[in-house]
Structures are given as C-alpha cells and as structure tokens.
Write a structure and sequence with these properties.
With 68 residues, the chain is of the alpha+beta class. The chain is built from 1 helix and 3 strands, in the order αβββ. It folds into 2 domains: 30 residues, no CATH class; 33 residues. The protein is globular.
Length: 68
Amino acid sequence: MTGPDFIETGTDDRDATAAFFHNVMGWTRESMGGRGGTLMGEIADAPGFGSFATCTDPRGVRFGLHQN
C-alpha cells in the first residue's frame, strides 16, 4: 500500500486544509459527491455537542460525521 485510501478530518476551512495536506504530503482532495453511500442507523443529537452519524462509503468503509 502506498498511502491511505481515505483520511477523515474535521475542518471549517476545506481549502486551507487541502492546501496543508498537499504541501506536507503531496496529497490531493477528491470530491466524493454523487458516489453514494449509506447512513448506518439514526443521526444522534447531543445537546451542546451537535449531531453525529456513522456512514459507509460505496466500498463499505465506515466513517463518522459531526455537525455543530
């Protein structure tokens, strides 16, 4: 394996984060839009912390989502 298949980051500045990883690691960002995926279970609301969800991408890789 030459590198990670995907990386999950939490950011409020997508462009700056993409530039950082490109400068440090040579990585590029690819949009996952329109490829599908599955929400696993319910979206959980945690007062004071936000909403959380666990999903899988089209290949079955699990990842988490958080929104304030």
